[in-house]
Write a structure and sequence with these properties.
Blueprint lengths: L8 H18 L4 H6 L4 H13 L3 E5 L2 E4 L2 H33 L11 E4 L2 H12 L6 E5 L3 H7 L16 E6 L8 H10 L3 E5 L5 E5 L3 E5 L10 E4 L2 H16 L2 E2 L4 H4 L10 H12 L3 H8 L3 H15 L4 H10 L4
Parallel strand pairs: 4-5, 5-6
Antiparallel strand pairs: 1-2, 3-9, 4-7, 6-10, 7-8, 8-9
């Protein structure tokens, strides 16, 4: 058989598994018996050393080992590996910051607790790595920025979702995002999954706040290079950005989930599903053109339906129509 030092790591793990099983079957394995079974002596010594280090076996003499009870040894090993995995996940953002900082030109100034981001890719990478570490709460600002559009356009299965429940995630999105194909559907999917999504107008920037410990500010809408964007870990700055989010959230309009969730509702709203969707989008401040694109009808059809709905609700403005529909439980 090929020598272990010629094999890749996954193959070595497979060898350790087969060696451990062979030892289990013998009860009290010896180097001589394992070599007689066809294993190379050096491979046996190397594999046994790893198994000893993982506290699965213990040496009781030269070339002789005792098997520790698997009922206790295996859970102990699993706990050790889980602790290492948690440590790896928790240190990833800091290591990422060090890696990005190492790529900064030496003459550029640095600030304690602040990491500057200088490209859209850096903003997106930092956003993913930071959000994946959230433990309690995650708040997003999403304006019409290149970094935001790149994230919303990604395959959702490729994104590392945070460990916090969806109900602990909240988003404030700028209505300007609705002009881009697929964005509205993506946001409605998030709303249907339990994420609190609200729509505002005129957000100054994109960003996120993680557990009141870290914040990211994305300025790529103001500079296509994302120059000036940053990650901050200084408490006062993080709390200030979080407070700005809370104000924007309170002033924004809730986004209704998709029609799939609405299908189970039993209210007596005299509306067709299409009109319900139009009202839901109307309440967020979407334009007729944005609504038409989402509902797959012409702008003229939307204009007629909005006028009819306003008459039905006794509303003199589009905003009032959205408010009245919300109060009646139609959306």
């Amino acid at each position: 058989m090929p020598r272990l030092d010629e094999l890749a790591d996954p193959q070595f793990e497979d060898f350790l598994t087969s060696l451990y099983l062979a030892m289990l079957r013998t009860g009290r394995p010896t180097r001589e018996a394992l070599v007689d079974s066809g294993l190379h002596p050096d491979d046996v010594d190397r594999g046994a050393a790893f198994l000893v280090g993982r506290q699965l076996i213990t040496p009781i003499g030269p070339g002789v080992w005792d098997i520790l009870p698997p009922e206790t040894a295996m859970p102990r090993l699993a706990a050790t590996l889980e602790a290492r995995a948690r440590s790896t996940r928790n240190t990833a953002p800091e290591l990422g910051a060090l890696w990005r900082q190492a790529r900064v030109e030496p003459e550029e100034p640095t600030f304690v607790g602040v990491e500057m981001l200088r490209s859209v890719d850096q903003v997106v990478l930092a956003s993913h790595s930071l959000s994946a570490t959230a433990q309690e709460r995650l708040r997003y600002f999403l304006d019409d920025s290149p970094a935001t559009l790149q994230q919303l356009g990604e395959d959702p299965s490729a994104i590392v979702w945070p460990s916090v429940p969806r109900r602990s995630m909240s988003l404030v999105v700028d209505v300007a995002l609705f002009q881009h194909d697929g964005v509205l559907t993506r946001l409605e999917e998030l709303a249907s999954s339990g994420v609190a999504v609200r729509v505002g107008d005129g957000l100054p920037f994109s960003g996120l706040v993680v557990d009141d410990k870290t914040a990211l500010v994305d300025l790529s809408r103001h500079d296509p290079r994302a120059d000036g964007s940053f990650v901050v870990r200084r408490r006062a700055a993080v709390m200030a950005i979080g407070a700005l989010f809370d104000v924007a959230y309170e002033l924004s309009t809730p986004m209704a989930p998709t029609l799939a969730r609405m299908a189970g509702e039993t209210d007596e709203a005299p509306l067709e599903p299409r009109d319900r969707r139009i009202l839901s989008l109307l309440a967020t401040g979407a334009t007729d053109q944005q609504i038409a694109r989402s509902v797959s009808v012409s702008t003229r059809t939307v204009e007629r339906r909005v006028a009819s709905l306003m008459r039905t609700l006794g509303a003199s403005t589009r905003f009032q129509a959205g408010v009245q529909a919300t109060r009646r439980g139609w959306i």
